[in-house]
């Protein structure tokens, strides 16, 4: 069915739903097509830094997020084997004061639910599940999506928000060439009551060590602890969150690490593993009436915690560009890319650099960790180094 004024979004993840909400709030008609039969996110945590909450608040989500988020009191850095702890009063009130909006920690399903509720509040049937897009074609007047079940839908614009294995990107630009980083990420969630009191705290913890990094932080009002770890390994190359590992395998990756790390690992029912891949930043994201956002066009390593935040910023900007240049798709998407390309490429580059720093073999040495904490994690320097990222206001960009 053709709808000349509609925007079709492929992918109902965090980026796709944020774009749908941003477009609906501007009075544009939107439909989101999600391949899963049920709208849900993986059971894992996510951190949304101040530049992301700034956009989510502008989309009217402050109260709904307040019902599910955790605002951590601070961050602590710990030594991988001795457990020595350095406390930083970064995050919490310090971050909110510096950047105007807080750094929050969430269950991904809760953030996804908040976005889906807000979209459905403006258009109850906007999100279509069980719709796997298999192809896209366009002419001067409209774009046509085709789905696995044989249906065809048309609209004025298409946004491919279909993630790291994007079908829309492949249709526009051909297959990509990911390269394995030699690094695997683990994730798991633990009910807070299973953990000892000195671990079950409302703060973010980063464990620094050689060849690995462990992070844990509270989510869902503090009812769950999210565990994420990164380790150098070359025997696992599947880039997907649906593959379960075992706690024995996870524990083996952190042999010799402090007992508190193992206390958390032992309480995870099923840990999942994801092979980290890198891709060269794309030169262009758009063809005619079709563009991309989020992981579909600038997937990034998780060392800056910015993948979803960049998708949220993209969503706000692409909606503003479509509204302003609705009758001129080429200008709408050219402006969108112009605003977003350098910033997202910088995030991809810096995340890659952080990986080298996080996995330095020198961190095996206790003195080197103390130096690293002083050099790289020291609060004032870290804030200055990251101002370009967190102070950015996607809602105030001139379109
Ligand atoms: C270990 C790890 C930790 C991370 N931590 C953070 C963090 O703390 N903060 C942060 O900001 N980012 C983080 N990220 C990155 C973040 O997870 C991603 O950048 C983010 O999920 C991208 O959102 P998206 O909407 O672009 O894509 P996705 O979340 O992948 O959503 C894509 C959606 O499209 C659907 N889809 C795919 N193909 C089709 C199709 N053909 N037809 C219809 N639907 C389709 C999928 O089912 C999915 O729902 C982390 C990543 C990793 C690996």
Per-chain topology:
Elements: E1 2-10, H1 14-25, E2 29-34, E3 45-48, H2 50-58, H3 62-66, E4 75-79, E5 85-88, H4 92-99, E6 104-107, H5 108-122, E7 127-129, E8 133-138, E9 143-147, E10 152-160, H6 167-173, E11 179-191, E12 204-209, E13 212-219, E14 224-232, H7 247-253, H8 259-267, E15 272-278, E16 290-292, H9 307-324, H10 329-358, H11 366-377, H12 379-390
Helix pairs in contact: 1-5, 1-9, 2-9, 9-10
Bound molecules: flavin-adenine dinucleotide.
First-last Cα distance = 31 Å
| Ligand inventory | flavin-adenine dinucleotide
Number of strands: 16
The residue fraction in helices comes out at 25-40%
* Tally of helical runs: 12
Uncertain parts: none
Mean pLDDT: 91
**Can you write the helix and strand succession as a string?**
EHEEHHEEHEHEEEEHEEEEHHEEHHHH
Q: Structural class of the helix and strand makeup?
A: alpha/beta
What does this structure look like?
With 399 residues, this protein is of the alpha/beta class. Helices cover 36% and strands 25% of the residues. Helix 2 packs parallel to helix 9 and helix 9 packs antiparallel against helix 10. It is globular and about 65 Å long. Flavin-adenine dinucleotide binds next to helix 1, strand 2, strand 3, strand 11 and helix 9.
């Amino acid at each position: 069915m053709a709808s000349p004024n509609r925007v079709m979004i492929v992918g109902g993840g965090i980026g796709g739903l944020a774009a749908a909400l941003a477009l609906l709030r501007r009075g544009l008609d939107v439909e989101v097509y999600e391949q899963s039969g049920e709208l849900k996110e993986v059971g894992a945590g996510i951190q949304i830094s101040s530049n992301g909450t700034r956009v989510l608040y502008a989309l009217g989500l402050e109260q709904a997020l307040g019902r599910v988020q955790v605002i951590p009191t601070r961050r602590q850095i710990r030594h991988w084997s001795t457990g020595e702890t350095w406390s930083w009063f970064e995050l919490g009130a310090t971050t909110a004061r510096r950047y105007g909006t807080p750094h929050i920690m969430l269950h991904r399903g809760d953030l996804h639910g908040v976005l889906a509720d807000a979209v459905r509040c403006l258009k109850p049937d906007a999100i279509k599940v069980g719709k796997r897009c298999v192809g896209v074609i366009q002419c001067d007047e409209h774009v046509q999506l085709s789905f696995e079940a044989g249906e065809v839908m048309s609209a004025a614009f298409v946004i491919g928000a279909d993630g790291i294995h994007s079908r829309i990107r492949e249709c526009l630009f051909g297959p990509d060439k990911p390269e394995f980083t030699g690094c695997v990420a683990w994730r798991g969630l633990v009910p807070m009551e299973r953990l000892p009191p000195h671990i079950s705290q409302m703060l973010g913890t980063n464990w620094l060590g050689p060849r690995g990094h462990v992070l844990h932080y509270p989510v869902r009002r503090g009812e769950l602890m999210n565990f994420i770890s990164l380790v150098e390994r070359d025997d696992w190359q599947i880039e997907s969150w649906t593959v379960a590992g075992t706690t024995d395998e996870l524990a083996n990756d952190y042999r010799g690490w402090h007992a508190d790390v193992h206390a958390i690992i032992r309480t995870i029912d099923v840990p999942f593993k994801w092979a980290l891949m890198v891709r060269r930043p794309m030169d262009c994201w758009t063809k005619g009436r079709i563009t991309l956002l989020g992981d579909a066009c600038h997937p990034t390593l998780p060392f800056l915690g910015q993948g979803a935040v960049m998708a949220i910023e993209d969503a706000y900007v692409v909606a503003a560009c479509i509204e302003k240049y609705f009758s001129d798709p080429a200008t709408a998407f050219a402006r969108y890319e112009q605003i977003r390309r350098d910033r997202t490429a910088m995030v991809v580059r810096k995340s890659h650099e952080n990986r080298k720093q996080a996995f330095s073999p020198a961190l095996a040495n206790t003195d080197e960790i103390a130096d690293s904490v002083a050099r790289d994690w020291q609060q004032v320097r870290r804030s200055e180094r990251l101002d370009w990222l967190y102070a950015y206001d996607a809602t105030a960009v001139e379109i």
